[in-house]
Automatic annotation (TrEMBL):
One GO term describing the cellular component: cytoplasm
Protein known as: Uncharacterized protein
Keywords carried by this UniProt record: ATP-binding, Nucleotide-binding
Superkingdom of origin organism: Eukaryota
Molecular functions (GO terms): ATP binding; ATP hydrolysis activity
SUPFAM superfamilies in the record: P-loop containing nucleoside triphosphate hydrolases
Gene3D superfamilies assigned: P-loop containing nucleotide triphosphate hydrolases
InterPro entries reported in the protein's UniProt record: ClpA_ClpB (IPR050130), P-loop_NTPase (IPR027417)
GO biological process: cellular response to heat
């Protein structure tokens, strides 16, 4: 059990909880790019029972913008009710 806890603590540096870090304080910048991709991620999350999309691509192509846009939509409650209250990592 201790090994699992240590592993989980060690993995924390690999991801950011966008809602905890930015959402409650309104620090998310308005997203004006990648609206189509954000919409597709929302549709994917809504339609799947157990889905964990993973955005893959070269550096500086907009992956983080898509994740921030999704977080902004969740904070602004601009997503289906099923997605409200979920974490974005």
């Amino acid at each position: 059990m201790e090994q699992l806890e240590k592993k989980q603590q060690g993995d924390n540096h690999l991801c950011i909880d966008f809602l905890d870090k930015y959402g409650p304080y309104g620090k998310l910048d308005p997203v004006t790019r990648r609206q189509q991709e954000i919409k597709r991620v929302v549709q994917f999350l809504y339609k799947c029972k157990r889905c964990n999309p993973c955005l893959v691509g070269d550096p500086d192509v907009g992956k983080t913008v898509i994740v921030e846009g999704l977080a902004a939509k969740i904070v602004g409650q601009a997503v289906p009710p099923k997605l409200l209250g979920n974490k974005v990592l």
